[in-house]
Amino acid sequence: MTPDRASTARDVLTFYVAAGVDVALSETANDYLSAPQPAAAAPVAAAPAPTRTLARNQDAPPRAAAPAAAPPAVPEAAVMAAREAARSAASLEDLRAILGAFDGCALKATATQLVFADGTPKSRLMFVGEAPGYEEDKSGLAFVGRSGQLLDRMLAAIGLDRSKVYIANIVPWRPPGNRTPTPVETQICLPFIQRQIELSDPDILVTIGQPSTGALLNVQGITKNRGRWFSYQTGTREIRAMPMLHPAYLLRTPIAKRMAWRDMLALKKALGT
Ligand code: URA
């Protein structure tokens, strides 16, 4: 192989690994070639209206919707087990250990390690993102990749750093290939992040991106709702909460940084710093 072709082959392999090719997605192999093929050029009755879908860490452009399939049932037993396990944690250290031993979420099997948090527990300000990516999975710390580095610069702009904030994710294990966590995975992990917020007890909660905003605040539409104040019940008290645009989205959409800057200033004001 010529050096050029070797480096192209290496790049392709790196891409496949980043996309999760080394990760088993089900217990048994799927033979897609022998599966029945859809009838060719079958006429489509009524095309469903396009809907807006959110891709991982971003406001994705509208896509044509596939015919609606019934959402997979949330396994109640796993959610109940998660609730009970989360409730039993008396401290953040406890919670980390309990989460590390929890086998109810399939993502644990494909991730390298648990990504519990980064920053400083009990800070007045807590950020919650969606799920760890490649860099977080490697390091075990939340928001350390490109998104995290932008988050650091945003914090620095209002005089903060990781010694003054606490950062976690809705889902603490990296989904294969950085895909969006499924609603089932999110529901199973939700009791843990809720308990993590309660135990860290921030004055202000910032939900980063739509998945976190939807899961914690039950608010849909990140572009419309970013920078607005909501209330969040931690379990012991009511605190203020604000959705913000995900740094991954800001990296791809620099024009949106001016909205993020306004939100950072609002946070600074709310903290009285
Ligand atoms: N994106 C997230 O939502 N969380 C991380 O920890 C990293 C990237």
CATH topology type of the domain at 76-103 and 113-271 = Uracil-DNA Glycosylase, subunit E
Overall number of strands: 6
Give the name of the CATH architecture of the domain at 76-103 and 113-271. Answer: 3-Layer(aba) Sandwich
Cα-atom radius of gyration = 20 Å
State the oligomer. Answer: single chain
Largest sheet: 6 strands, mixed
Structure explained in plain terms:
- By secondary structure, this protein is α/β, with parallel strands linked by helices.
- The chain has a domain at 76-103 and 113-271: Uracil-DNA glycosylase-like domain (Uracil-DNA Glycosylase, subunit E, 3-Layer(aba) Sandwich).
- 41% of the residues lie in helices and 10% in strands.
- It has eleven helices and six strands.
- The protein has helices at 3-18, 76-87, 92-101, 107-110, 134-139, 146-157, 183-200, 209-217, 222-225, 247-252, 257-271; strands spanning 118-119, 125-129, 165-169, 204-208, 230-233, 238-244.
- It has a six-stranded mixed beta sheet with strand order 1-3-2-4-6-5, with helices on both faces.
- A hairpin with a 4-residue loop joins strand 5 (230-233) and strand 6 (238-244).
- Helix 2 runs parallel beside helix 7 (183-200).
- The longest helix is centred in the last third of the chain and has 18 residues, at 183-200.
- The radius of gyration is 20 Å and the shape is globular.
- Uracil is lined by residues 57, 129-133, 136, 142-143, 145, 147-148, 169.
